[in-house]
Amino acid sequence: MIRFPPLTVPSFFHPIIEAWVIWLTTTFISIPAAFFYMFVDAPSALVRCLLASEPKCIVITGASSGIGTSLALAYAKPGVTIGLLGRDESLKKVAEAVNSRWTSAEILVCDVADTDKLAQTLKEFDDRHNIDLLFANAGQLGYTIDTDKEWEDQWDRIIDVNFVGAVATAMTGFKLMEKRKNRRGGQIAITSSISGYFFMPQTAYYNATKAALISFGRDLRYIGRQHNIKVTVITPGTIDTRMTTDPHQPVSLPSWLLTKPETLAQIIKRRLSYNPATIAYPFSEHLVSWVTQSLPTALLDNVTWLVGKVSSSFSQTGSRGFS
């Protein structure tokens, strides 16, 4: 009996078919739907913003620096309790700054990669205060140029912190909020990154974890609705933090090119009040990433190669990965 190979579309037809599908979808579905949601969401967001109550108890992981510290200061006001969760002693300085604004700050020393201790820490804090808003914000980019550890061996720590730690944070909070009486619920904000859409290929581990968080947050948002738990994914662009300006990183950017974390924190605080699915800031940077998502796979492959080559000229590791 003659066996014929399975029928499929030849690969050289894929780019043109993908391009046509993207064009048809954009023209006849995406653009009309976008106009509809723009007119529906604007008044709806305004109403939700006016009716929203400010959280009285907040927990922020990765609170010792950068976006985490800026979020703590943005929410600091009399009558608010903020749990500052991080690994090092620099939390004391953040706590002092928060307390100076007549806010109760509690230091929670914990590595989010230690999921058992993380769950215990969050539960004990929730028993004392009842968490209204939980930021799964802790993350790291990768190794520094003065380390002895090879890039190929770095994946476990980055995945443990950026993905496993973030999911463990969100799900511990989810379980605590799910059990509350009268469907009081709560809110969870997950910090992903613009790199979850597209970024230089040398940060392969980091990009993968942030892409996974975008998917995870989108799905958890659906699951949380039945329990009155609001979930938002935050995708910051290049922000002025230790992660982007540390001279020991293979790629270090000048701070004047970057968005200040204080600005991002104020944007996040305002937008979380009306429960959006995502918070993308700076918007201009995200436009570039969204363009890459609309490219046919073959073209995206070439764009990735080009971005990698350009990035290698600025990286102290060249084309070699570093995150």
Automatic annotation (TrEMBL):
Membrane spanning stretches: 20-40
Pfam families, per database record: adh_short
Originating organism: Paraglomus occultum
Lineage: Eukaryota, Fungi, Fungi incertae sedis, Mucoromycota, Glomeromycotina
Gene3D superfamilies: NAD(P)-binding Rossmann-like Domain
Biological function: Putative oxidoreductase.
GO terms for MF: oxidoreductase activity
Annotated InterPro entries: NAD(P)-bd_dom_sf (IPR036291), Sc_DH/Rdtase_CS (IPR020904), SDR_fam (IPR002347)
Record's GO cellular component terms: membrane
Keywords: Membrane, NADP, Oxidoreductase, Transmembrane, Transmembrane helix
Family: Belongs to the short-chain dehydrogenases/reductases (SDR) family.
Leader sequence segment: none
Superkingdom in the source lineage: Eukaryota
Protein name: 11143_t:CDS:1
